[in-house]
Fold:
Amino acid sequence: MRQIIVLLIISCLPLHLFAQEGDEVFGFLRYPTSSRANALGGHTVSLIERDPSLIFHNPGLLGGEMDGMVNLNYMNYISDINIGSASFTKARGERGAWGIGASFISYGSFKKTSVNNDQEGTFSAKDINLTALYAHDLSERWRGGIAIKFLYSSFERYSAFGLCADVGLSYYNSDKGFSFGFALKNMGAQLKSYNEERQKLPWDIQMGVSKKMENAPIRISVTAMYLNKWEIDYIDKVNLERKNTFFKTLTRHLVFGVDYVPSENFWLGIGFNPKTNQDMSLETGNKLGGFSFGGGVRIHKFDVSASVARYHPSATSLMVSISTTLDDFK
Structure:
């Protein structure tokens, strides 16, 4: 397993040379699928917790400590746009673990009209991801994992299919409270396009670290994203006065998070995503764009958490997660 994961990483690294600007398909794969990750800026590949939702961010975080766990997540993104995910994880032997999961985004209902603007009913749009994962402990502190994703998209009568994979590594030193994560995400292709032109997937290289303070139950996390390219365009290209300095470009690759973890049964977290903050900035305000916060608590046999983030100037997104272990009900 160690040789397989190393070979996969080495073979995929040169792909960053071909990163190009342009439209992407299955962009929902970039959205957070974990309330905990959402609270810490929306992304993490290094957070070591008994939380199955984190495996969507890095398959190298999957482990035997998640044996028999079920996780459900739901986010009201904007208006009637909803995002959800579910997963089940199981230990395999002493050093392995596998999992299955699914995530989706529903874009709501749309009016269907003719070229003459005559009402012809309504239609829906959605993206779905089905995932199979496997992870293996490479040593006492190193773990590697892989996730295979089967993608489907439907917009009215148009549909698309895709296949991609995530490969991840994680390192954890419990004595020093330090963890490291690395992930190659969404490597694959669109197998069937909406029309004759195929689009690229939102593939990414991510790396992160988390460090717990020695004398306080506080942990700091930093995640680097979009490592397959340096320049990241603003979403709003109309405002030509925006200039990318070296510092701005650097911070747009980073996500910062701080969580307070006094026990295994309670946590609070806050995060900041500079890219989201800059993309969502307005002349009239929206200073809270890119900030997020949340918390979680264990209630009886369930781990329940919620987080709030601002991904759009006009709305705040709420995410709720719940996890449990099936053996607790025996």
About this structure: Confidence is low (pLDDT under 50) at residues 1-22. Helices lie at 2-12, 35-39, 246-251, 274-279. The two ends are 33 Å apart (CA to CA). Residues 2-12 form the longest helix (11 residues).
